[in-house]
Design a protein that fits this description.
alpha/beta
């Protein structure tokens, strides 16, 4: 019974925090400069995790200036974990816009949505990413293209790293893992399979001692082909997470 009451309280605090975030973006962001917005995004993301009962365990720093951040993808929480490291702009699928409250917030905080259907749409997305990176922003992509339960990784799609090559900015790998009170991998945050956003949020708030662990790994120079960048970034993340993987020949040594 205590867990149920605590989960309900956490959900209430989270909804209030989301509403406050929407009000901030709608009424205060237009008056703030770029740095104030970034500071607010980082602070708000850390507070959101706290409202949900998630403790942060972060290591390292994402490089300053323009960089393409690539991470393994487990949960919608990943967005806020990375923002807690360094406030970033994200590249997301269009369906994120339909998420209650979170979708509106994401859409109004510098997110670039992947347009589907034709090459012209893909080119517009790529051009927008390159422009942001060259302006000094940190952009985030999840090269697996979908979420997993955190016990394995899917192949990284090289095309999603082309913007770093075109912009001439480094690629910054980030590993993400969620642990429970016993330090085992927690299934609670996994937004995988047929689970709904509401079911995922409820599982998170019911969890005991949930920890979001993130490591900002060494940045990789983008002066190579995107296939190499994708393989190298996945290799570094998998090694950090201790996930079995095949080491590509050009990454060995």
């Amino acid at each position: 019974m205590f867990r149920q009451i605590r989960a309900a309280w956490r959900l209430l605090l989270t909804v209030i925090h989301l509403l406050a975030g929407c009000a901030t973006v709608a009424f205060r962001f237009p008056r703030w400069n770029a740095q104030q917005r970034l500071d607010a995004k980082r602070r708000w993301s850390r507070e959101l995790l706290g409202r949900l009962g998630v403790r942060l365990d972060i290591h390292g720093d994402i490089v300053s200036g323009g960089t393409l951040v690539v991470a393994n993808h487990i949960s919608w929480l990943d967005i806020f974990v990375i923002n807690a490291l360094r406030p970033c702009a994200f590249v997301c699928k269009d369906d994120v816009k339909s998420w209650p409250l979170i979708g509106w917030l994401v859409a109004n905080t510098d997110t670039i949505f992947i347009e589907r259907g034709n090459r012209a749409a893909a080119r517009r997305t790529a051009d927008a990413m390159v422009a942001r990176l060259q302006s000094g922003a940190a952009m985030v992509v999840f090269p697996e293209g979908t979420t997993t339960n955190g016990t394995h990784m899917l192949p990284f799609r090289p095309a999603l790293l082309q913007s770093a090559v075109d912009a001439g900015v480094p690629v910054s790998p980030v590993s993400i893992r969620y642990r429970d009170a016993k330090q085992a991998i927690s299934p609670a945050p996994a937004y995988d399979g047929d689970i709904s956003l509401w079911q995922c949020m409820r599982a998170i708030t019911l969890a005991e001692g949930l920890v979001a662990e993130a490591h900002a790994l060494a940045a990789v120079d983008s002066q190579s082909e995107r296939q190499h960048l994708a393989a190298h970034a996945k290799h570094e993340i998998a090694v950090q997470l201790g996930i079995p993987h095949h080491t590509p020949p050009h990454v060995q040594g």
